[in-house]
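Narrative summary of target 7.
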Amino acid sequence: MLFNSINFAVFLPVVFVLYWFVAHKSIRNQNILLLVSSYYFYACWDWRFLFLLVFSTALDYYTAIKIAEAPGSKWRKFWLWLSISINLGFLGVFKYYNFFASSFADAVANFGFHPDPWTLKVILPVGISFYTFHGLSYIIDIYKKRIQPERNFVDYSVFVSFFPLLVAGPIERATHLLPQIQRKRVFDYTKAVDGMRQILWGLFKKVVIADQCASYANLIFSDAAHFSGSTLLLGAVFFAFQIYCDFSGYSDIALGTARLFGVELLRNFAFPYFSRDIAEFWRRWHISLSTWFRDYLYIPLGGSKGGTWMKIRNTFIIFLVSGFWHGANWTFLAWGFLNALFIMPSILFKTNRNNLDTVAAGKLLPSFNEFFAMSITFLLTVFAWIFFRSLTMEGAFQYISGIFSTTLFTVPSIFPGQLLLLLTLFILIEWLGRTKQYALEHFAFHWSPAVRWSAYYLFLVTIFYFAGAEQQFIYFQF
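Modeled conformation, tokenized:
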């Protein structure tokens, strides 16, 4: 079930009414309703993979209790690694087996061997990377004695499978979400209105910006050899806005939906394209994944406490793993490698925490230095996105060589004026709202009620105007 579908438009109000008007007297009943609704939400995609989700949930629930009750460190480690091995095993089979089998066949072919690797013809279970990481963080936190295991299976199951975050995050922590699931939730009109506003903004980003950018990005990337360098550059920029508005739009809808049920999810995006360096970009992009890798991989590896070599090694490890997390393709590894390369100067010269504040705070416009830094950071990010979007390494290099040709300085053959106007409006709204949790929140505090509600209706009409066939969110494939 997609957030941008008619089915979800019916599903959400029904669950909302049952939650606040039928099950409101009991936290237990509310949580059972959330669990049943979440499983139905997931089963609408493919009911067969619901069993995998339930098994993964039960595995982590049981092993967490066994870790806490283990008589010694040996058994604690046994149950920890049992859970990690099985979870990563499922992830490896469904997501990475074909990649390794094909890569092995290609490698040995260079030595004259031509094996026929057996590949799995399976569908990647939607959301498996996200709910696997939910479970792993919980198990590791139990092992590190940061939290106690949850004994209520329903409550723990809601933590793993809460439908707003189930298929594409944010990647939650038990320390943040479980306490909210366990305590009484009272309807808050102000938070509900704020949730609806964030859902509206998320739908606008997805339907009006991301999907329109996708049509041109797909056209240009699919036939790159026949376009000029300027058109290819424009296509890469379109993809940069497509993936940002698609994924952050999903996150906005997820956070807004959760707020309707009295739950606050972790923020996942903080205006990353206004970053002044790559380090700042990664503090603002897919925050829940970035902090997950920081806490459960980078810091255990030694973080930045060691010498220069350790900093370089750990940085490349975390970005390569992040790239591989996104998909079983060399292009994702190249994307991760490039980002590690881009961030390396700030790591080595210890400037990676120079830009912790909001750009141009308290000012309408950025300074020349700020604008220049944002522009360079954005262009580096766009360059890396080319590898992320390309299907093969060869295709990525051909696309880049096409950009850096004499035709880079010609007029693009594709120049959609309506979309460029929408992007300009979108960037303006994002810029004005950059100090808030999400851009449209700015309207609630700086515009009169009449103007504010007129703007909301205008956004809604625009969404319906551009809505067509339901377009899947990009991160469903990860």
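The mean pLDDT is 91.
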